[in-house]
């Protein structure tokens, strides 16, 4: 029977050949509707295609741009309330016109793409308006749409795309609107402009000079007040890489808010436009060249503005990196250095870019060129592409996710209880999960993931409200409100500390996991290394003896009582503490021989009840060098042998007739009954590996909900199948299709032939597979278990290695959405 071994080697090899890329798994996963994360959702039948989100300064009102409407939502309470809704849809005629021109009817609505505060009383909004963009002022209090005396709205060309699928960005500064969008119906005239300028400030746009923008996709924009600059982020064709066809590059471009254009040259055009490449790339690797989203993270108070960071999500145009996304951080100081450096020149005859050779007449990108000479302005007009690229902080990727396509992100600086600041990123996956990750010195740690939608959909916007502790996600049918943390979900100090969530710390006084900022005294928290022993130690609870669950410190529990008949299969369930935790079982014999015990992938333990296997079982989880009991069971023989086929009772029937076999472990746990002499089986005992005895005292308590044995129905079913010899086949399929046919035929035949003989035997033998085939048909599940066991072992080996190195070689079966089913503790 070398097949299971062979199989595990094979699968192991496949795993290695597969995507063993350094990656991170979220520690806990909350699928939709899980109590640990109650999500507030606002959806009305008449709201669809949420595209823009805008939060009032006080954080009480969320303005939402959707299809044919703008809404004001009151988000000051936990449940979202609609305050007002503005209908703003194109006329029937306009929509008919639009579809006559060959556009999909569904796209001929008004999709709100610009929603910005102008001043304290007014909002400026623009929508695609049936491929004929319009803009309007909205009074925020009371909420209504303003139109010109003739009842018309403003022309929106250059401020909003025509096509609802085209991306754009817009930002208002001092009542002026800075936009980046395509400015024509065909979608091939990209432009960066300023509108709503007043007085000496005039509206500006980009000159039509060759190469200012090359088929760009605009992502976002950011205002840096101290520099009086607006930065635009986008991707476009990198024509300077003329040796690669259609090479996409990510860019940052800048303009000065003080710009008023030139007097003769560059009249009504930007004199301060410059762009540079954003290079999300680590050494010796292809760049992640396509920017998906980028956000600004202001530096902590008292630190230079140049430490402002821009966190971006990038994907790659090359298949070698397809399906992955990377996060890069760029520092404002580095960006300014690049813009202050040299610029490339475009040779107008050959259309080739080269590093500048002519004399530097001016500093492109510099603010305040209004009165500059024509010569200077001509120079800046032709020199706008910085020679250097902006490299990420530390010249490396902040994170790379091998299997997640991130689309949007939000960033927040969180002060932990030790006073240190941590960067927390909220990353939305295309499959519908919001990952919460904290940046640590040695990499990223994903604290949790929360499922925010089930059907994949293009989310246009997420918005973080720091004051409310909420991330708003704009869905196609509404707005979702996801709390940035829920510390009370962690019910013990170890759980609280192991989460390594900078938001959450253990309040020693009130014995609860709470918001770190709300705890007065020294709180239990260790974001950097999650050291439970240190963070949860207190004079009351010495390091070696504290107990995972509060209020349960001294209640020793013998465990869930499981009584079954001899030779019946016992399956003990074990909850998952976290995805980073490893589970293992300990039982009456010091090591659970794989010949007798089957540790399944879901963490459960399966074995046959024999005099040897009676006793106390512990499911122990190890995470970050911290061990805790997840479940305790007391497995005994059922007194009445006539009830063989019924479900093993969870009713507490105390074992009387039989005592526990003596444990070989050195006093690690109390025994319920004094050990008696039990007739030893003839088979050699499972060998005890030296060093497997743990010397630490473990306090046993009922930490978690215990999973009871499968319900009677399924158990009966199992017994039934067992009698028909079907479990055998079923189990094998679980192992692998590779094994299927040959082994099934072989073993079924073998079993069938010895079945009669087996029945007479009562004493099960548990030494080797060969012997097992001599046993009664009730042994079948165990024997069949041989194959899944090797499967389980393979995982047991792969997981620790993988996690230890920060590499993920995840071979466990996943749900259809690529996520493990969530098991909240
Ligand atoms: C936080 O977690 C607790 C415990 O799981 C749960 O009862 C509560 O509803 C959660 N709160 C939120 C806002 O998700
Ligand atoms: C609007 O939402 C529908 C349904 O989710 C989607 O199919 C459609 O593509 C969306 N339209 C735009 C312009 O995003
Ligand atoms: C805000 O802008 C609107 C539109 O330009 C203007 O009518 C209004 O007076 C401004 N309000 C304030 C307080 O400046
Ligand atoms: C530019 O020149 C005009 C007229 O010569 C002058 O009034 C203005 O102050 C100058 N602006 C700057 C910024 O120097």
Automatic annotation (TrEMBL):
Residues passing through the membrane, by range: 732-754
Xref: Gene3D superfamilies: ligand-binding face of the semaphorins, domain 2 (3.30.1680.10), YVTN repeat-like/Quinoprotein amine dehydrogenase (2.130.10.10)
Enumerate the Pfam families for this protein.
Answer: PSI (PF01437), Sema (PF01403)
**What are the subcellular locations of this protein?**
Membrane
**Gene Ontology annotations of biological process type:** axon guidance
PROSITE patterns for the chain: SEMA
Q: Which InterPro entries does this chain map to?
A: Plexin_repeat, PSI, Semap_dom, Semap_dom_sf, Semaphorin, WD40/YVTN_repeat-like_dom_sf
* Major localisation: membrane
Which portions of the chain have biased composition (kind: Polar residues)?
Answer: 637-666
What are the boundaries of the region Disordered? 637-696, 758-825
- Claim: RNA-binding is one of the keywords in the record: no
Question: Which SMART domains does the entry mention?
Answer: PSI, Sema
Query: Which residues fall in a compositionally biased region of kind Basic and acidic residues?
Result: 769-778
Asked if the Swiss-Prot or TrEMBL record annotates the protein with the keyword Metal-binding, the reply is: no
Q: Which UniProt keywords apply?
A: Disulfide bond, Glycoprotein, Membrane, Transmembrane, Transmembrane helix
The GO cellular component terms are: membrane
Q: The Sema domain covers which part of the protein?
A: 27-484
What is the protein name given in its UniProt record? Sema domain-containing protein
Instruction: Tell me the organism.
Output: Umbra pygmaea
